[in-house]
Specification:
Helix content is about 25%, strand content about 25%. It is of the alpha+beta class. The structure holds uridine-diphosphate-2(N-acetylglucosaminyl) butyric acid. The site of uridine-diphosphate-2(N-acetylglucosaminyl) butyric acid (EPU) has 18 residues, from β13 and α7. Uridine-diphosphate-2(N-acetylglucosaminyl) butyric acid binds next to β13 and α7.
Length: about 350
């Protein structure tokens, strides 16, 4: 049975807390329900929005179509070989719960991705990443349903075309598939990633020496760092990083460096450098600023926040002002990481 509802408020389904409405709404708990949905011919032509945890979404308007909230649960070990464990999770599994499951069982590879808000089904969409790890490093394959036909198809690693906060699902396949299950290939032998940002010093503060390192310790350190920098959406509405970190040519980077010697930059492996957008935004004086009910977070300038009662348009207008000032000062265009509806 499918319970399709009308005129549903999305306020508690997006981490910015915007009070947008869905014309139609359905929650999907099983693969079978997803199949049933495609037998309802009256909805075939209706525009659809697929919702996971709503942690990377900015609503500027009501959605005049069908919002499909993906809540398929279940974490299952499919098989293992000498060095890997293959773990399948339903699209609706809370990402952090999956991380905790893996950490508790000694399956390594996603401990650096602890506490990222959102669901497992949304994770491959933008190849979620943090502290030197992206999910493409442990991704095996996913199952997705074609929104036009209801047929299930498998996407392997290559077919997902992962990039920095990118996948085929944000480009050619945008809006065409509903991810229902994702399978990860975790490692039995951990490879510790502690070089990024504050992980090493946080471990030291926690009294964990390198010979005591474990995936649990890394997960705990990441949780500590995230809690200290990133606002909890349950308290202050936000969608994590609002912009992607821009990649600029090495030439442009060197030129800017002569004027701004403190500008951080990380080589990407090709001829570009990735510059932290948070630094650029902070240099433009935005960190901690309020504009009406919208604002730039006081501890991480890459995060735009809803201080209560802001609309999606207010956040978007603040985002354009931030973009403009970064462009005026540095000649760098910031691109949003969040999906704007
Ligand atoms: N920085 C500042 N001021 C700020 C923020 C950052 O100067 O207000 C500079 C500092 O130099 C800092 C550097 O930027 O050392 C990097 O900052 P941070 O480690 O916080 O990471 P980020 O590049 O700002 C990215 C991801 C985050 C992820 C962190 C940690 C993107 C768009 N964001 O942020 O992801 O948690 O790295 O790995 O790549 C998200 O996607 O929603 C998200 C939170």
């Amino acid at each position: 049975m499918l319970d399709i509802q009308s005129h549903v408020s999305l306020k508690s389904y997006n981490t910015f807390g915007f009070d947008a409405k869905a014309r139609y709404w359905v929650e999907i708990d099983t693969d079978a329900q997803l199949q049933t949905l495609f037998q309802l011919t009256e909805f075939l032509a209706v525009p659809k929005l697929i919702l996971g945890g709503g942690s990377n979404l900015l609503f500027t308007r009501d959605f005049e179509g069908l919002v499909i909230k993906m809540s398929i649960q279940g974490i299952e070990v499919l098989r293992e070989d000498a060095s890997h464990v293959f773990v399948k999770a339903g699209a609706g599994v809370n990402w952090h719960q999956l991380v905790l499951f893996c950490v508790q069982n000694g399956y390594a590879g996603i401990e650096n991705l602890s506490l990222i808000p959102g669901t497992t089904g949304a994770a491959p969409m933008q190849n979620i990443g943090a502290y030197g790890v992206e999910i493409e490093q442990v991704f095996d394959h996913l199952e997705a349903v074609d929104i036009r036909t209801g047929e299930t198809r498998i996407f392997n690693h290559a077919e997902c075309r992962f990039g920095y906060r990118e996948s085929v699902f944000k480009h050619e396949a945008k809006g065409q598939y509903i991810i229902s299950n994702v399978t990860f290939r975790l490692n039995k032998q951990p490879v510790f990633h502690i070089d990024y940002g504050a992980i090493r010093e946080t471990l030291a503060t926690m009294g964990i020496s390198e010979d005591k390192l474990s995936i649990k310790a890394i997960s705990d350190a990441v949780i500590r760092i995230r809690r200290s920098k990133l606002p909890n959406p349950a308290e202050i509405g936000n969608a994590g990083s609002f912009f992607k970190n821009p990649e600029i040519s090495k030439d442009q980077f060197e030129t800017l460096k002569t004027e701004y010697p403190a500008m951080p930059g990380f080589p990407t492996g090709d001829l570009t450098m990735k510059v932290p957008a948070g630094w650029l935004i902070e240099q433009c004086g935005w960190k901690g600023k309020h504009v009406g009910n919208a604002g730039v977070h006081s501890k991480q300038a890459l995060v735009l926040v809803n201080h209560g009662g802001a609309t999606g348009s207010e956040i978007l207008s603040l985002a354009s002002k931030v973009q403009q000032s970064v462009e005026d000062k540095f000649g760098i265009r910031l691109n949003p990481e969040v999906n704007i509806v």
